[in-house]
């Protein structure tokens, strides 16, 4: 029986860890968590916000997906969008999901991220 999603795995090209750290910690407000030694040798970095984890692994022939993405539930979505915009991140609002406010943004290597909040 599946009880929860443990983490979402994204990919990035070699040598982009510092860009990713700046985005996921500064722009998104996540905390970097240490990778176990054997996995740390592969490069990449892991991040956490509450129970949500995003793992970014290194992929030599990386190409960001145009469609695939994690959907991240947030509170105070407008403030979240403003925080990303203040860090130079383009935010694209989308009204197509009934009962939700949502927008899309991309991390510095092109991974698409969806942010959504249920309307009350």
Can you walk me through this structure?
The longest helix is centred in the first third of the chain and has 11 residues, at 17-27. This protein has helices at residues 17-27, 37-40, 77-86, and strands at 8-12, 31-33, 45-49, 52-58, 71-73, 92-94, 100-106, 112-118. The mean pLDDT is 96. The chain is globular. The chain is of the alpha/beta class and 120 residues long. A four-stranded mixed beta sheet has the order 1-4-3-2, covered by helices on one side. It has a single domain, classed as 2,3-Dihydroxybiphenyl 1,2-Dioxygenase, domain 1. The protein contains three helices and eight strands, in the order βαβαβββαβββ. Strand 7 and strand 8 form a beta hairpin.
Would you spell out the secondary-structure blueprint of this structure?
Elements: E1 8-12, H1 17-27, E2 31-33, H2 37-40, E3 45-49, E4 52-58, E5 71-73, H3 77-86, E6 92-94, E7 100-106, E8 112-118
Parallel strand pairs: 1-4, 5-8
Antiparallel strand pairs: 2-3, 3-4, 6-7, 7-8
Descriptive key words:
33% strand, four-stranded mixed β-sheet, 2,3-Dihydroxybiphenyl 1,2-Dioxygenase, domain 1, alpha/beta, 120 residues, single chain
